[in-house]
Amino acid sequence: MKQIRISAKNLGEVSLTQFCPRCFWIKLHLANRLPFQIFPGIFSSIDSYNKNLVHSWFDKYKCEPTWLSVLGNFKDYVNPPHYSKFNIINHEYNILLTGSPDGVFIKTDNSYVIVDYKTAKYTGTQDNLFPMYVTQLNVYALIGKQFGFNPISGLALIYMEPITDKDSASNDENQNEDGFSMNFSANIHKVVLNTDIISPLLYKTRELYELDKPPEGLSECKDCINLDGLLTLMK
User: Fold this and answer.
1) Residue 183 belongs to what domain range?
2) Would you call 112 helix, strand, or coil by DSSP?
3) Which has the closest alpha carbon to 139: 94, 92, 190, 194?
4) Which CATH number covers residue 60?
5) Contact between residue 96 and residue 41 where contact means Cβ atoms under 8 Å apart
6) What integer is the mean pLDDT of 117-124?
7) What is the pLDDT of residues 141-166, one digit of tens each?
8) pLDDT confidence bin for 126, thresholds 50/70/90
9) Count of H-run helices and E-run strands, the chain
């Protein structure tokens, strides 16, 4: 079998209620080199700032920021490995799983907690993308064990929600000579550690990849509708 390379987050798409097999097949065969795909760089900048802020706090005070304490008492952090090194091969389906967690923290009992930051409004379990994030974190846990992140005692999503209400906007403290400041509120959602959910998703990934042509898509998939419109236009 030809090896498939897939990120933890992309594997998580298979677990979504609105999963589209056709779109997933296309992504697998194009190795995510899709046209018209633009990810705003500002989100990467915010994530990077978030990580640096938390790590700086640990460096100064040797403990977690107050808002992180709901996950336990921590004594240190680990710089997450780069995605080019943080990977594992599933030999049963010959799939290379990759990724890079946003945060890895060491508790006072020497166990590890892996987190992922999301710059978004917090909607709890109502978020349609939540199953994808659950998979993403569990893949990080699976890979993390081979990096010595053992035992892993917790996984969590941390929604960093921008505070944009009128009172905050009118607060003089948020104004400065160079522009303005925006505060963020941390909303932490714990995720169940269960790496057993990964194997069925890998099986489905291999099954779809081996198809000679794309399968039927989800009937209401907007990407499929747009793709069909583009193909019609090109005829």
Assistant:
1) 4-234
2) strand
3) 194
4) 3.90.320
5) no
6) 81
7) 999 999 999 999 999 999 999 998 99
8) low
9) 7, 10
125 has a pLDDT exceeding 70: no
Please count the structural domains in the chain: 1
Query: What is the C-alpha to C-alpha distance for residues 160 and 22, in angstroms, rounded to an integer?
Result: 32
Task: Give the separation between CA 234 and CA 18, rounded to whole angstroms.
Answer: 28
Nearest alpha carbon to residue 22 among 183, 229, 209: 209
Cα 113 off chain centre by? 15
Helix (H) or strand (E) run with residue 55 in it: helix 41-61
Closest CA to 218 of 228, 210, 232: 228
CA separation for the pair 223, 22 (Å, rounded) = 10
For residue 211, give the DSSP letter: -
Pairing of strands 74-78, 103-107: antiparallel
Mean pLDDT, the chain, whole residue set: 92
pTM of the model: 0.92
- Distance, in Å, from the CA atom of 9 to the CA atom of 2, rounded to the nearest integer, reads 21
Q: What residue type is assigned to position 192 of the chain? A: V
pLDDT tens for 24-61 read 999 999 876 777 777 778 888 888 899 999 999 999 99
What the block records as the tokens of 45 is 């900048």
57-69: b (≥16 Cβ within 10 Å) or e: bbeeeeebeeebe
